[in-house]
Amino acid sequence: MKQGDLVTRKSYGGDIVFRIQRIEQDRAILCGVEYRLLADAPFTDLVPLNGAEDVDSPRYYAHQAVHSMRRLVQDRIRLHEKSPYASINKGQAGSYYFEVPGTVLHLDGDPMYLRKCMTLYEEMRIPAHGFYMQESQMADSLRRLLPTIKPNIVVITGHDGFVKNRRDMDVMSLSSYKNSSHFVRAVEVAREYERNRDSLTVIAGACQSHFEALLQAGANFASSPARVLIHALDPLLIASKMSFSSVKETVSMIDLMESTVTGLEGMGGVETKGSYRMGLPRLEKIEMPNSPA
């Protein structure tokens, strides 16, 4: 086995597919393909996946993720049908409306997940700016990026989880988590920039993150209420839903969490209005008016 190979772990019943990120002596450092999980395991515990699909393809997702993406498309169709502009006589000049979805700033601690997310933002026509960086760098980077990009939605994610082999494990202490404290600081910076949760939607956390601390810091949505592993696309799915939800409406929390893969165990949050706007008119071609006689 070598770096880049796909494997599962015998000790966990092969429940999660990993890619070998690097090799350290007789152990492999593993990165989850679909779940935001970093792990390590001895080579004797690994089972190679031969002839596997190209999991780096943006079209490789769990069945639940595909279902969630389809729901987002259906929601967008319903949004168009509900528009008061949809019934305007299309024969009238310039009667078509135009759309202004919310802009996303996505910070990710994993380059593979970031590539997948950016491909999907593009496919869904969501204006998005993505940056890969270590979780510890996110707070300082936001101080520079927020006033430059001026997003409607910020995603702060990467890798997290409980610190291994702690005897004094306390799930309510930030010191028990690998990166939750970094995510909290990044959320605090976002709230220093914009305090209104309806003006700037903040989505924060990764696998097993300290949900309560992230919400208290000012996140609208965070992981992980039940301290479970979250799907790699869960933060993107919420950001996409908010980008194409009307600024006039508060998004249904149940509907929003049902659009994710891990549901209410993996993601939670507070009521928030969307970031999507419609406008008139959309001019395909501008013609100069006739000059007066």
Automatic annotation (TrEMBL):
<dbReference type="Pfam" id="PF05582">
    <property type="entry name" value="Peptidase_U57"/>
</dbReference>
<protein>
    <submittedName>
        <fullName>Sporulation peptidase YabG</fullName>
    </submittedName>
</protein>
<dbReference type="InterPro" id="IPR008764">
    <property type="entry name" value="Peptidase_U57"/>
</dbReference>
